[in-house]
Design a protein that fits this description.
Elements lengths: L6 H10 L11 H8 L9 E4 L2 E7 L39 E4 L2 H8 L6 E9 L5 E6 L9 H11 L4 H18 L12 H12 L8 E5 L8 E5 L1 H7 E14 L4 E9 L12
Parallel strand pairs: 5-6
Antiparallel strand pairs: 1-5, 2-4, 3-7, 4-8, 6-7, 8-9
Helix pairs in contact: 5-6
């Protein structure tokens, strides 16, 4: 069977990449209906991800006036009912857990302001060597994560040669949307990556994919972020360390934090013990 790349799909993706949906009338349902016409080729592999990091800006928590966070639930994914906007890997009212692997990436992604109280949470696997079923979103020619590139190459070689170029091209195209810069307040422009993430999580391989690794836009694709299904995160990860800091300086290029508290203690009701 001859496999050909859908040229209409390529053109659509390339055209969409140039559009700012905030400056033109748009029906979100029409966009999603159009995207459903395209068959996307994805693959997954298993990978052990031993630890993750998150940075929570305290004042962004409902009813928090830049105050200390006392419950572990506020350091995880937000409840779906408060998600009125699209995210890079979530549709409206769809909650996923976003995390990173390096602290500098967290700062670049969240960009807290001077005076903000922030909580850094570090998470580890409950059981060592427990793998995740991952879908990698990788802009291969520009990817600087060489370990991910190697894993991508090895996984791609498992497919028939006639499929490899098609899968490769699809990944590069989709990666452009996961790597697209979106201005604050223009979340409608996340609709494309959010839609693709929804299909990856809930349709591909009958919903067995547990996480998506994708390039950090704020870090120019140098490092990766990860989006996980909340039930997977809760089942496989537990808190390792929590620290609270205040942002005290911003020289335009770097943020500086001063740590106030640190703890590893969480009681059976998931209350954080800062003493």
């Amino acid at each position: 069977m001859k496999i050909e790349l859908d040229q209409k799909f390529i053109k659509s993706i390339q055209d969409i990449d140039k559009i700012d949906l905030t400056i033109m009338p748009v029906d979100e349902n029409v966009i999603i209906s159009e995207l459903k016409h395209y068959k996307l080729l994805y693959f997954s592999f298993t990978k052990i991800v031993p630890d993750l990091q998150r940075l929570t800006i305290n004042k962004n928590i409902p009813n928090n006036n830049n105050e200390r966070i006392s419950e572990l639930k506020f350091l995880k994914n937000p409840p779906s009912e408060v998600l009125h906007k699209y995210g890079r890997a979530n549709l409206k009212y769809q909650s996923v857990l976003y995390a990173s692997f390096l602290f500098p990436t967290l700062l670049l992604e969240t960009r807290p302001e001077i005076g903000d109280l922030v909580t850094i949470s570090k998470w580890k696997l409950k059981k060592d060597n427990t793998p995740l079923v991952l879908c990698p979103i990788i802009d291969y020619p520009n990817c600087k994560d060489y370990q991910l590139r190697n894993e991508f190459e090895k996984a791609l070689l498992k497919y028939p040669k006639e499929w490899q170029e098609i899968i490769f091209q699809h990944y590069c195209l989709i990666a452009k949307h996961f790597g697209k810069y979106v201005e604050k307040g223009k979340d409608i422009n996340y609709i494309f990556s959010a839609y693709f993430a929804d299909r990856i999580f809930h349709e591909i391989y009958d919903g067995k994919i547990e996480a998506i690794i994708y390039p950090s836009v704020q870090d120019s694709g140098t490092t990766s972020n990860i989006a996980l299904k909340p039930n997977v995160f809760n089942a496989k990860y537990e808190i390792d360390e929590i620290s609270e800091s205040v942002v005290f300086s911003n020289n335009g290029h770097s943020l500086f934090l001063r740590q106030i508290k640190s703890t590893q203690k969480v009681d059976s009701t998931e209350k954080i013990d800062w003493d």
